[in-house]
Predict the 3D structure of the following.
Amino acid sequence: MTMATFVPGPAPTRLTRLRDLPRRGLVAGGGHVREICGQWGVNGELHWMLQLVELRGPEGVLHLPPDAAHVLAGIGGPQVGVGPGAAVGLRKERVLHYAGAFLELRRPQLRAAELSRVLVLSSVPARATPSLVFSDLHGTAPLPADVRAIVVRSGRVSAGGSTATAMEALVLPDATRGDGAVASGPGAVADDARVLMVIG
C-alpha cells in the first residue's frame, strides 16, 4: 500500500484592522503605538517588525529595538518633525531612513484633534532587509514575490482570500518554501488602491 504524503498549502493571508490592534503609550508625549506584524527567530530574536505610531500631542518619543535599522513613512495627518530638534520633516507619502535608539517626533500645536500617523519598519540587517514602498494598484496585478505586508491607505485590495480597505493591512504568508526556494509572487485584485508595501 502506497502512503500519500500530505503537503500543506500556503497559509492564508491575514487581515488586520489597524484600529483594532492593541496599543501602548509612547515613552514620552501624547500618543501611542500599535504593532502590526513582524518576524522573530526561534529564540525571540527580532528579524523585522512593522509598527504604527499615532501622535496626538505636540511631541512623542518611541523606544526602538536595539541593533536595528529603521524606515519611517508618513501615512496620515499633519506633518511631523523627526529627530532631536525636529530637524527633518516627515509628511504624508514620504519615506525616511532613521538610526537611533529613540524616535523623537514633534509637531506644532494644533487646534484640530487629527492624529499624525507614521509607520515604523525596524529590521536587523544581519537577518532581514525589508523596505517600505508606496504603490498604486488597479485591477488584477501580480505582487512582488517577497512582499510581506500591504497597508491600504485608500481603495480596496484583495489577496489570498482576504480583502482590506483603508486603515487595514494584509499580512502575507512567508514566500519561502521548505526547500529554500522563493515561491512566485501572489496576485491581487485592487480597486483604485493606494498602498504601502513591506518588501524584502
Observations:
- The longest strand covers residues 46-63.
- Confidence is low (pLDDT under 50) at residues 1-9, 176-184.
- Residues 1 and 133 are 52 Å apart (CA to CA).
